[in-house]
Fold this sequence. Notes:
Layout: H1 4-23, H2 25-39, E1 48-52, H3 57-70, H4 73-81, E2 86-90, H5 93-96, E3 104-105, E4 111-114, H6 123-128, E5 130-131, E6 143-147, E7 164-170, H7 176-193, E8 201-207, E9 217-225, E10 228-240
Parallel strand pairs: 1-2, 7-8
Antiparallel strand pairs: 1-4, 2-5, 3-4, 6-8, 7-10, 9-10
Helix pairs in contact: 3-7
Amino acid sequence: MTSTATTAHTDTATALAEGAAHDGQAELRLALDARVRAAGPPRPPAPAVAVLRSFDPATFARSVLDFAARLPEETRRDWQADYTRTVYLVGNPANIRDRLPPATVSPDGQVAWYTCAPWARHRDLRLLLRTVQGRLPAGMPERFTVDVPAPPTTPARTEEAPRHWHLTVATAGLDLPRYLVHVGHTLAEPTLTGVLAPGDRITVRHTADIGRLPVHQAYVRVHQDLADTGRLRAYAVLAAAEEGDVPHG
Length: 249
């Protein structure tokens, strides 16, 4: 016969599990754990560096995709093992590219990326330039669209048609550095793993917050909730367009 204490314990555990599922924390924890598994075995730190002359969301997003898509396979593994860590610095790429040649530069010259390497390799950049700081600019676009580029050495895509993706970014409480970090991870890691393929189109949507996650999300950027450090929060969600828009608060 089941004791009253055992029944009460079971009921409490069930209630806690249902509560975690209801408020999404368990789901966010699973997404965070999946990212750790995808990073693979630890490797020496290999951060990238991005130098921004100015900030435009679409230009920045395209620069992330271009940089990640062009990385050779071994460098991809190094960067993913370091959780695509990136240092964001303020500077004019045109003024430093002769002395410190970047790996990629956006067509308008706003953003330059320096390849993933040990910290010592980036010493001159970090001494020369300061880190990005400040608020998100007023008038952020509600939506914009970017395409995943095809590196020059990539064969033409023949097996399947390009896909359309929705990337929803929660901006409530974010400053500019945090926006760069969250969007950078969310675009870089699916590119490194092949989830995003050359020719794919991504519609990026800014919203205050993200509510219920889509059932078949491809990537969720999860981090500590700024408003409640004991909880997790979804800062960005990438899902195939056929999943529909991600609900938001």
